[in-house]
Amino acid sequence: MSNLIEIRDLSKVYTRGKQKVEVLHHIDLDVAQGDFLALMGPSGSGKTTLLNLIGGLDQPSGGSIAIGGERIDQLSAAKLSKWRAAKVGFVFQFYNLMPTLSAQRNVELPLLLTKLSAAERKKRAAIALALVGLSDRASHKPTELSGGQQQRVSIARAIVSDPTLLVCDEPTGDLDRQSAEDVLALLQALNRDHGKTIVMVTHDPKAAERARQTLHLDKGTLVEQVAHAVA
């Protein structure tokens, strides 16, 4: 299986006043097409920074990031924005849904950046909501949905453009255990049945066990990579 993500000698340095803080230190990492990777580590270990770099939300201070053979660290801000819109779906801990819009309209939001007609946007949003099991909640606003349902709407929004890669930042961090299990089962199905490559930051070992492998970071360095036997 070919690699979707190839990271070489990756470093990230933030400047805080006169002090420079190196958050990631010379990371080398390959993620195969169709893999499901969990990123774990203590607070400040660099896992969210690494996720943001993979998703094109930030740029490295050194090294390279190639995704699908494209060096995203060399893209201009405008080209990187277009790349994210076409290639990456984002799932965050706190859903980030528009409170005044229905589930259907929330899912349609990424498609507003395309040339699709209103009818085609509605059709694709309906398909995405069906995939996450929420066809019967399409007209409901976020306040009319449970936390688990809101997160499933955010996942539908993430996949509506059929991205190659899903990046998930603590997607179960604000959910009760049953809702968390439902969301993790959905992510597994998207990985297993629809071939989505997923990179997920989590603090929960049970969530990490749903991934195909877990990458442990500590103080900006890769310290361990563990493969899981996933059904």
TrEMBL record:
PANTHER family in the record: ABC TRANSPORTER ATP-BINDING PROTEIN, IMPORT ATP-BINDING PROTEIN
PROSITE patterns recorded: ABC_TRANSPORTER_1, ABC_TRANSPORTER_2
ABC transporter domain span: 5-230
A GO biological-process term: response to antibiotic
Gene Ontology CC: one annotated term: membrane protein complex
SMART domains: AAA (SM00382)
UniProt cross-references to Pfam families, sorted A to Z: ABC_tran
UniProt keyword Signal, yes or no: no
Listed GO MF terms: ATP binding; ATP hydrolysis activity; transmembrane transporter activity
Protein name, as recorded: ABC transporter ATP-binding protein
Domain of life: Bacteria
Family: Belongs to the ABC transporter superfamily. Macrolide exporter (TC 3.A.1.122) family.
Keywords for the protein's UniProt record, in alphabetical order: Antibiotic resistance, ATP-binding, Cell membrane, Membrane, Nucleotide-binding, Transmembrane, Transmembrane helix, Transport
InterPro entries to which the protein is assigned, alphabetical: AAA+_ATPase, ABC_transporter-like_ATP-bd, ABC_transporter-like_CS, ABC_transpr_LolD-like, MacB-like_ATP-bd, P-loop_NTPase
